[in-house]
Design goal:
This protein has 197 residues and is of the alpha+beta class. The chain has a single domain, classed as YfbM-like super family (Hypothetical protein yfbM fold), CATH 3.40.1760.10. The protein contains eight helices and four strands; from the N terminus they run βαααβαβααααβ. Helix 5 crosses helix 8.
């Protein structure tokens, strides 16, 4: 299937809950009931119980209650995510804010949701990103397409030598979807989670 970037709406309050209890991320992103609340057993349970008075207990993932949302859809950038990031920043993983937030936001603990942890983009950062994207012209963004440079930087997936017209159409659709989803979240005063599956 490959690597796909997903953005999912998340209030600042839910992001705080997830940072306090990273294991709950699995429920948040996929309604997965297996939250990783299992006891450590003989291998570490006795030590955890011994040290318990000295450590603030992490809430159980199954006890975390999330906000209700007016919408539950996500933005799936498909495999265009890395190409989009290049078009927005001119880099593979660096670049300036606000586009930088897409791949460089605080991780939700160390919980792997596919290819590493989910990252939290605050409501203010999402609004900033939305304003930035709305100020960009689609044609000007696509004019930054540079197959040679994208190949040199190992921008995923390695397809940049194919038809430029088709690739720009693919990336342009991704840009439009990204802009619309960021605007939708900003309109509702929400932030987003960013994760690769």
């Amino acid at each position: 299937m490959g690597m796909v970037l997903v953005l999912k709406r998340a209030s600042d309050e839910d992001q705080a809950r997830l940072h306090a209890c990273p294991k709950a991320i699995h429920r948040f992103v996929s309604d997965d009931e297996d939250d990783g609340d299992a006891d450590l057993g003989d291998a570490g349970g006795w030590l955890a119980r011994l040290l318990q008075p000295f450590k603030k207990p992490e809430p159980k993932a199954s006890d975390v209650v999330f906000d209700s949302y007016a919408f539950d859809d996500e933005f799936d950038a498909d495999k265009a995510w890395h190409g989009l990031y290049f078009l927005l920043t001119g880099t593979a993983y660096e670049g300036a804010a606000p586009p930088r937030y897409l791949l460089n936001a605080p991780p939700i603990g160390k919980e792997d949701v596919g290819y590493g942890p989910a990252m939290s983009i605050s409501a203010n950062q999402t609004a900033e990103l939305s304003r930035h994207l709305n100020g960009l012209d689609r044609g000007a963004v696509l004019a930054r397409f540079d197959a040679k440079r994208m190949t040199e930087l190992d921008i995923y997936p390695d397809i940049w030598e194919e038809s430029e017209i088709e690739l720009k159409d693919y990336l342009g659709g991704g840009f439009d979807g990204l802009k619309a989803y960021c605007q939708k979240c900003a309109d509702h005063g929400l932030g987003m989670l960013s994760y690769i599956i």
